[in-house]
Each structure stands twice: as C-alpha cells, then as structure tokens.
Design a protein that fits this description.
The complex is a heterodimer of chains A (205) and B (10).
Chain A: H1 2-17, H2 25-38, H3 49-71, H4 88-103, H5 109-123, H6 126-135, E1 137-138, H7 140-167, H8 172-197, E2 202-203
Antiparallel strand pairs in A: 1-2
Helix pairs in contact in A: 1-3, 1-7, 2-3, 2-5, 4-5, 5-8, 7-8
Chain B: H1 2-5
Classes of the chains: A mainly alpha (205), B mainly alpha (10).
Chain lengths: 205, 10
C-alpha cells in the first residue's frame, strides 16, 4: 500500500505542478524493468485477485509515469536529462543480471529474472537519491514520495519476521535485497525525519 | 518445492 501510495503521490505531484523537477525518470525506468522481470508470472500463475491487480497497476502506472516525464508536455518540458543522468545501464543492470544469474535458487528463466529483479529493485532508488543530492533542496511532495518509496520495504522486513515465525517462511534473496534497499534509505530518512520534526524544508547536505 | 508455489509477494 505504501508502494502504491508513493506512485499515486508522484502522479499527483506531476499533475498538480505540471513539473517533474527533482524527479528521476531513470529510477522509474529501473522499476519498470524490475516489474517486467518479476511479473512475468502474470502469464502462467494466479496467486490472488489482489496480487494480480497490484502487479497490473504497478506496471501500467510506472510506464505511464515514464511516458509523462519523457514525452507528454508540459511535464516533459521540465525534465532535465542532464541532471538525471545516473548510468544505471552500466552500474545497476549489469551487476543485477550477473547476481541474478549466480544467486538464483534454480536455473530457470523465471527464477533468474525474479532474482535479478530483487537485486535491481534494491538499488533502484540510487538515481533518485543522487539527483536529490545535486539539487539539495527537496520539495515537500517529492520528499513524501521518496519517503514512502523507501518505507514500503522496511514494512516488508517486519512482515518477513512475522512470516518466518508464523509459517516458517524463508526467502534469503528477498531478505538480503530488502535489507540493502532499506539501508540505502536510512540516510535520506534521517534528514526527512529531522525536517518533519523541526517543520522545515528538507535540505540535504 | 517452494518454486512450484511461486513467489507470492509483490
């Protein structure tokens, strides 16, 4: 729900301000790749209506966000290609593919794709964080969006602890990826919490 | 086999 909320917040921000200054389209592209790799199972397995609906919403809303930022004026006119230039193709995609291949529990295409998607998701926030560090001053809605985008994985960790004790659920790759992902946010969260506490604008060091 | 059940998380 937090993940969904972060997407809705971003959509709302783009529609309301008609600007995507401070938003990394490259992060959305990473997520689009994550979703396409992971949700291939839409074609051959059914878990629940909720699960299927969320997958479809995540994929379609993420592609819509990319479309808005890259191609749809007036939002696309505010997109700064030079600032949002983190080369995830080299730094994230390659390593995620290699890690996905060597750490997959089983060498099948869906399993390798799933594993690679977990590793890629764990670092997908990097383009966004690096963009914010260049700008330093973060708009309120952008701050909420990034905070919810980080918080959802933290709540997964709580759920994993519950599931481990309640059902003996084990998911080593998911857990490790989740810890890396949450760890990358800790720094941002700190500055976000401080700005909320003091009721000031979020300014990154 | 857990994989037969598939990944049930998003």
């Amino acid at each position: 729900m937090l993940h969904l909320m972060s997407i809705l917040l971003l959509l709302w921000k783009l529609k309301k301000s008609k600007s995507c200054v401070g938003i990394s389209c490259r992060m959305q592209e990473c997520y689009a790749i994550v979703f396409c790799l992971r949700y291939l199972d839409l074609f051959y397995q059914f878990i629940s209506v909720y699960n299927t609906a969320m997958k479809v919403v995540f994929i379609s809303s993420t592609f819509y966000l990319i479309f808005l930022m890259r191609f749809q004026p007036p939002v696309s006119a505010t997109y700064d290609r030079t600032a949002d230039s983190f080369p995830y193709e080299q730094y994230l995609l390659g390593p995620a593919a290699v890690l996905g291949f060597i750490s997959a529990e089983e060498w099948s295409i869906p399993e390798i794709f799933w594993t690679a998607s977990i590793w890629l998701e764990s670092v997908s926030i990097l383009p966004q964080l690096i963009l914010l560090q260049q700008l330093r001053e973060v708009e309120n809605l952008t701050a909420e969006f990034v905070a919810t985008m980080g918080a959802y994985r933290f709540f997964y960790i709580l759920n994993w602890i519950y599931r481990y004790f309640a059902e003996g659920y084990v998911n080593w790759i998911g857990w490790l990826g989740g810890i890396v992902q949450t760890g990358l946010y800790v720094d941002f969260f700190y500055y976000y919490a401080m700005s909320k506490w003091y009721g000031q604008k979020l300014v990154l060091p | 086999d857990a994989r037969l059940v598939g990944h049930d998380e998003l």
